[in-house]
Design brief:
heterodimer, A: alpha+beta, 6-stranded mixed beta barrel, 14 helices, elongated, B: alpha/beta, Rossmann fold, 4-stranded antiparallel beta sheet, about 35% helix
Chain lengths: ~425, ~270
């Protein structure tokens, strides 16, 4: 019976708490609205902090998803294997490192986790067409698998075929950016250009892919690797190659297999370091992760300073407010307000003030992302829900932390002194 | 709620009748009240051994020059302050040395204040102002009770006006409604007409007279004779002691004459 009575009293108490909290929030909003400018200046720090959280987080996230989608475009299961000579303590090369077409063929044939391979010769070449001359254009000598491994498409003309590779045919496929820089249109297809003084027929154009981290993927010349070897014969024993694993989760298997095959073929002993390097996408991700950490720590710095400033502002204005409203506190106490009621009222006010600041900050953050996103070269920004929650949580936390002292000061005012206050 | 209710109930063990219509338990009982303040290094004796009994439905004026201790008396009667020495029983419950929390609860439930300068919350409506004490005592049906209280001061048509849209007299009527909302044991009015012109002041006094006629116990602190004359009993304070107490034998309201006991009879009761 007694337990029932306690239960009932608790159940009756809960809605009462809720309505009194709602009442406090309404009182706080009225108070904030009646001091608009003061409130706005007070929460400036919070606004700056929250704006930074929202905009920086969504930029980092935006770049993150861009990197991910770029890597997908790069070929999700791709690796690049290249000869790398072991270096001594002073950076000198210790012994020659070789990578021949036979090595690549052995990997292609022997590794079950590898779907396809493609030899590649990286150079920078000069391309000439008519009076136009472009120097230092990224040029790749490769085979037909390149298109599939790197997720490239040809949307005009054709890519070179196996016969072109076998014959070392002087044909090339150009990126759109090269075309633009040569000031040509698509009629360049089937016309001739000079690459490092060799005559090449343009047989196709790569579909545009956009730029990534300063590297424009559209500024590229692709030629058969056999032809590249004719131009740069010294590369014969120093080939690199692309590898595509059969699936994303087979990448470690593929890596293990190719390492085993190459080490065996190069006659390396168990303790010897490998004479080749493997470049995987997770290294791009690692690179990006570092950038992300830097951005996040800069953000943390801005946010903590402005939250501190904002918090002190709130504390200051709440102390003023308590003094201004001493008589009101006295009246409330004389009609039965407990210290707890007054404490909660002023604490609610501080939290509401901070949260309103947070709300303005979120709106500004969204605006900044929207405006920044209007630039054509910018990645797409998405404001993640967790950053909004984090921002609001931070502002409310600042409100509680810096509001507790003024609220406590209000709560302990003696009603007689308060009513006598002028 | 349970505390106050329990205390009233335990006290009613000694007095068989229920407190709300019992004459036997005085509303207010002060025994040898002392209050000392420390102002700087000096001790100020605001009240020195005051004893006083106020019964149900009395209408008392407390008068005295400034410094006579009447403000202190009001603060103590209103449970805003605690006493240094002595006993204060409110409806039989000893409230002399209660904690701030318990005093707040008593202020909310048993005492209605009316101040000289109204003390309304400026940014809310009359109705919300009247609801305020009910919010703090977590009373249910606040809106209903607030409307009833406004009806009693004849100000229902101004329920949704803010204080700055009301005249001084109307503001004071809202304040009286606020004091009434909780159906308190006593209404404590501190110079209720002090900020009003004489005509409006008379209106406010009419309202208080009516409330008294309806059975409300009212205590007014004033220094104006014509206000005091409308009350049924006058207590004059000087240097912290009662120097005049007219008692309420001469001016009892007609409908109450048969019920009320003379004060000396109560004093002789054990």
């Amino acid at each position: 019976m007694k337990a029932l009575r306690i239960l009932v009293s608790v159940l009756l108490y809960i809605p009462d708490r809720v309505t009194s909290l709602a009442g406090n929030v309404v009182t706080a909003l009225i108070q904030i609205w009646s001091n608009k400018i003061r409130s706005l200046l007070t929460v400036l720090g919070i606004i700056i902090a929250v704006t930074s959280i929202i905009s920086v987080v969504s930029m980092v996230e935006g770049f993150g998803s861009y990197v991910t989608s770029f890597l997908r475009g790069l070929g999700t299961n791709m690796m690049v294997v290249y000869p790398e000579r072991e270096r001594g303590p002073h950076g000198e090369y210790l012994r020659p490192a070789e990578m021949t077409i036979e090595d690549i063929q052995a990997v292609d044939a022997g590794a079950t986790a590898i779907r396809r391979t493609s030899p590649v010769i990286f150079t920078r070449a000069t391309i000439e067409y008519g009076r136009q001359q472009l120097a230092g254009i990224d040029t790749r000598g490769t085979n037909v698998s390149f298109l599939a491994i790197r997720n490239f498409d040809v949307d005009r003309g054709r890519f070179f075929a196996a016969v072109d590779v076998d014959a070392g045919a002087p044909v090339c496929v150009l990126g759109r950016e090269v075309l633009r820089k040569l000031e040509c249109d698509e009629s360049l297809v089937s016309d001739f250009v000079h690459i490092d003084n060799q005559r090449f027929r343009v047989i196709g154009l790569l579909k545009s892919k956009g730029s990534f981290m300063g590297e424009n993927q559209d500024e590229m010349i692709v030629i058969p690797w056999t032809n590249a070897l004719k131009m740069y014969p010294q590369r014969r024993n120093y080939l690199a190659f692309y590898v595509e694993a059969v699936s994303e989760d087979k990448i470690p298997d593929a890596e293990g297999q190719l390492v085993r095959i190459l080490r065996q073929r190069h006659g390396l002993q168990a303790g010897d370091p490998s004479d080749f390097g493997i470049f995987k996408q997770d290294e791009i991700l690692k690179e990006f992760h570092t950038t992300r950490v830097i951005a996040t720590s800069i953000l943390a710095g801005i946010v903590s300073i402005s939250l501190l400033v904002g918090g002190i502002g709130i504390m200051n204005v709440m102390l003023v407010s308590v003094t201004e409203r001493t008589r009101e506190i006295g009246l409330r106490k004389s009609v039965g307000a407990h210290r707890r009621d007054i404490l909660l009222q002023f604490l609610t006010e501080a939290v509401v003030l901070a949260t309103v600041g947070g709300g303005i900050g979120i709106a500004l953050g969204y605006a900044i992302c929207y405006i920044a996103g209007m630039h054509p070269d910018m990645v797409e920004f998405n404001v993640p829900a967790w950053s909004v929650a984090l921002a609001l949580g931070f502002s409310a936390g600042v409100g509680i932390f810096f509001g507790i002292i003024p609220a406590f000061k209000a709560a302990i005012i003696h009603p007689i002194d308060a009513l006598r206050h002028e | 709620m349970p505390d106050a209710a329990n205390n009233v109930e335990t006290s009613s063990v000694t007095t068989p009748t229920r407190p709300c219509h019992a004459v036997a338990v005085p509303v207010i009982e002060l025994i040898d009240l002392h209050k000392t303040y420390r102002v700087g290094t000096e001790l100020v004796h605001a009240l020195r051994g005051t004893s006083l009994t106020i019964r149900e439905n009395e209408y008392v004026a407390i008068m005295g020059a400034s410094g006579s201790g009447k403000s202190t008396m009001l603060n103590i009667l209103g449970c805003l302050d605690v006493l240094t020495k002595g006993i204060y029983r409110l409806r039989g419950q000893d409230v002399s040395r209660l904690s701030q929390t318990k005093l707040a609860r008593i202020r909310g439930r048993q005492i209605g204040f009316v101040f000289q300068s109204f003390e309304l919350l400026g940014r809310t409506t009359a109705l919300k102002n009247v609801e305020l004490p009910l919010r703090y005592t977590r009373t249910r049906h606040r809106r209903q009770r607030a409307i009833e209280a406004l009806k009693r001061v004849n100000l229902l048509d101004r329920a949704h006006h803010r204080p700055n849209q009301l005249s001084g007299g109307q503001k004071q009527r809202v304040a009286i409604a606020r004091a009434l909302a909780q159906q308190p044991d006593i209404i404590l009015a501190d110079e209720p007409t002090g900020n009003l012109d004489s005509v409006t002041g008379e209106e406010i006094m009419d309202i208080l007279d009516n409330l008294h006629a309806e059975g409300q116990t009212i205590i007014i602190v004033t220094h104006e004779d014509h206000i005091a004359r409308r009350c049924r009993r006058t207590i004059m304070l000087k240097d912290g002691q009662i120097v005049v107490d007219t008692g309420n034998g001469d001016g009892l309201p007609l409908h109450d004459r048969s019920v009320a006991n003379p004060p000396d009879e109560a004093a002789t009761k054990p």
